[in-house]
Amino acid sequence: MSCGWHAHSSAWCYLKRGLNIEQPVDCERALLWCGCRLRLGRPWQCGRRDGEGGTMSVILDLSYVYSIIISSVVAIIYTLLGGLYSVAYTDVIQLILIFVSLWVCVPFLLTNPHSVDISLTAYNETFQAPWVGTVELDEAGKWFDDFMLLALGGLAYQAFYQRILSASSYTQAQVTCFASSAFCLVLGIPSVLIGAVAASTDWNATSYGLPTPYERDQAGSILPIALQFLTPPYISVIGIGAVAAAVMSSMDSALLSSASLFSSNIYKNIIRKQASDREMQWVIRISVVVVGLAGTALTFLDSSVLVFWLVGVDMSYTIMFPQLVCILFFKVSNGYGASVGYLMGIIMRVLSGEPLIGLPPAIHFPGCRMDAEGKLTQYFPFRTAIMVISLASILIISWLASVIFNKGLLPESWDVFKIKRKQKPTPGAADHKRTISEQEESSVAKQLLDTTTL
Q1: What are phi and psi of 157, to 5 degrees?
Q2: Distances (CA, A) of 294 to 27, 33, 244, 280, 284
């Protein structure tokens, strides 16, 4: 998060005035996020069952269907009843649960009798391959692309700005982002240790048996498996708290952000512009339930969740991130450039292919070749290249459109996005416009905070 918040105060104030970022796709991504979190845990683990539903199913020996339904009902109910308060206050509790629960589990895992010292297995093969891997030079481009995707793709999340814009000042927003990035590193240490212990375990000596979780293609479920077979039962239950807290901390944000986007941007601005605050509260409640149920339904699809998430995360990085950068830092940006950049990003991303969904590449970037599974794969950082091309397209087309209409090369009636320079409004008009904007922001905030008033 911190890498994107070096912006100066004017950029923060610009966002604070009500700029809604990533509106075209964030409702879809929020829906997919709910499904991925319930079923899988982390979005980059799609195709695996180590989310809350999967963990409950493994450790508590509950039906997978029942585990998913219980998890989704809890998330929907407390988000519905608490509104933005449920996101803000429960996040504090959830972070504490994550931190405490994971670190409580680590000593039991490190001292279990079926595993050897992880320092001995880091670079030496014992029961399994070493848990410290290497990055081959011919795969460096792919690793760099994945790194940039994870580092910058999240900056266009609606849920991210849902928290940042609630800060009282841009300084507090910056401090929050930098502090959270450091805290994420601390939270990542137990995960690394748990994976290292699993790679240092003689699974044949446990009731799990052989082959190993990796050989059974269950590496994505290693957390619940390790908790169940390498720790006492009561520690396994504590581990569920960590997973549940991680899932809920993201699902409630996804539910509320999608509800706020639909209610403010679609219902209020398009369907019913004269809607009252009471009516908007009911729209938010209904939206939370609908998105929650739809996300729950997605958890029962095996391959589709992976497909949908890949589409969403690529949209964020290759399409929405360039739009975000241009809005914040380049005044020349306008609707013409944004439209061309949007189309450019979508077209190039589709033509670049995606082996995980069976989409062959029509554009072969340098280094495009068959992978170990016989699938044609792009090893060039093509997502980053598409992002840069989309960014350049926005700026170039925006500048050209600005020159064309401001110099009168085309009639003003053709200016669909109204980018031609107008006379600056008087101070009185500007103050009046600002007052109206502040009143609208206050109304929206009240609706999100209070979803329980009948």
Answers
A1: -70, 135
A2: 12, 11, 20, 21, 15
